Amino acid sequence: MQNQYDYIILGAGLSGLTTALRMARDPFFKNVSIAIIDQDLHKKNDRTWCFWETTPDLFESVVSYSWPSVLIKGNKQSTTIDISPYTYKKVESEQLYAFAKAELSQHSNITFIQGKIIHITEKENGAIAKTIDHEYHAATILNSIYKPEQLENQQEAVVLQQHFIGWFVKADKAVFNPKVATYMDFSIPQNGNCRFMYVLPTSTHEALVEYTLFSKDLLPKEEYEKAIKDYLNNLGVTDYEITNREYGSIPMTTYDFTQHNSKHVLHIGTAGGWTKASTGYTFKHTLKKSAALIDFLKSGKPLKNYSLKNRWTFYDGVLLEVLAAHNERGAEIFTRMFKKGKAAHIFRFLDEESSYKDELEVILSAPKIPFIKAAFKVLFKK
Predict the structure, then answer these.
(1) Of 115, 236, 335, 372, which is least packed with CB atoms within 10 Å of its CB?
(2) DSSP code of 229?
(3) What average pLDDT does range 88-100 have in this prediction?
């Protein structure tokens, strides 16, 4: 068995497969050997990704549904927004995994290896990824294996979680609008946190109904599920079938994951700071960061020079400081952002593509005192 490669990608999840696809499609990497190692190369439908975009990108062929409008709802207002020129799209992970693996398997220079990584060792001329049974050597390792203990063992960075449980439900009557995705419904009890329902209808009878929080601490499973039951009951839905479930917890943090990069090991995905710090959104940022990574690798610059910092890093830090100190005001903050019934400037802001005019508009929509205090805290934080 071959054990020497130019690149090893650890993890065949979203970031690993996306990075591998971009390498496979770029002539620059045509003659380099690439191994993708994961303990489970037969992942099922373990998550749903949603994202907005104006033009089709890497995974357009596996988009399973899309919405032209989104709903933002609070206790005092409900706004349905036509998000043109954007479209809100849904991808099921099982289809994405199958699509990526099918394409990558056509490239003779790319090898899939099933194995659990137990250790990474750095040498002068490369790095070694060790599984239970084998050692694999590479000049460069791209590591997407996230270690929660990195956040647990530090006090400097703000750390919240985007955590959720979702039910795929089939109702006995028509209650959903399949043309509108409920992006954030804050009309539910907040209980001192930033809590909202997220609803993705695919027919008048079927939808993913998800109870989501942006907060520090996870809840007992029963609390998420009771919230979903109560929400469905308030919609008049008492007779329904749960066809599938999903759950997750995604870090929202100012922690600098790039500090763990070294001469031959670079971290990608959540492990590399690719998750949007202020929201926990991952899919769109993985598309963007993977494309930027390919350009970086082609430049030949040392891996230690890889940086994600930009002016949106500051904005993320400010919003996280506010949510950490005033978690109960999350509903107010996000509903005020969308108050004027527009979304394009907010999407550009969250995609880190906004103009200064866009950013000013977002800033002016925010509660002034907590954001000013947070801005000074971020500016003067050591």
Answers:
(1) 236
(2) H
(3) 96
